[in-house]
Amino acid sequence: MTLPLDVKTRQRAVWASGDYPSVAATVIPELGARLVRACGVGPGDRVLDIAAGSGNAAIPAAATGADVVASDLTPELFEAGRALAAARGVDVTWEEGDAQGLPYPDGAFGIVLSCVGLMFAPHHQESADELVRVTARGGTIGLINWTPAGFIGQMFATMKPYAPPPPAGAQPPPLWGDPDHVRKLLGDKVSELEFTREHAVVDCFPDGAAFRDFFKTNYGPTVAVYKSLSGDPERIAGLDRELADLAARHDLGGGRMEWEYLLVTARR
Hints:
The chain is α/β, with parallel strands linked by helices. The protein is built from eleven helices and seven strands. Strands 3-2-1-4-5-7-6 form a seven-stranded mixed β-sheet. Helix 6 links the parallel strand 4 and strand 5 (135-146). Helix 1 (5-16) packs across helix 10, helix 7 packs antiparallel against helix 11 and helix 9 (208-218) packs across helix 11. The longest helix is centred in the last third of the chain and has 18 residues, at 233-250.
């Protein structure tokens, strides 16, 4: 099912706020390319990147010679993506699309992937069903999802007490980083389902306060939580402390952090 209009509007507003292209380029620049390699994307492949954002996976996929469609609920992110693609000399087709109701026929793509994107669609089974539906028989599915126990999963847990209630029936995004949850979502519709826990090395923040300030300015979900706290300086100060402390606890030295994610690959 597609998202109700009010939920879709809210989701789109969250990701249009801040500067997600800056987050992708600054914090996780290599994550999309990692997924592309894991999926074996190559020349002539027909590829769909779901919840593509500004093309963190779509652009390296296109660089292999694949025919790539980047789909996202938030087309405001496409301008930055088009500029990045042009700078790298690759062609990507950018199309607005709801991960829970994709505008493509069954089996339209040989490779379907999503890099920390699909996991944010609120109703997991609906988006999982769409993921499988648009993948051709024998085709490849590939996902990178933040885990519940990893840094971003813990960041969402930290923000939860401060955040507005989620839409009815919405499930926490980091559940997509739990292998048991993914197995239930995909069921017997896929084969060769494999999981690998890996870490993104993040070393662009000198301390916890720098991480907090960057995310509260640029990362849509964090921006949205702070916006909901407008007029409540005590709660803003509380969240400020908790986010800075979270990053400080994960600092391995010199501002270096390792953010756990789950790499998922499967065959349709």
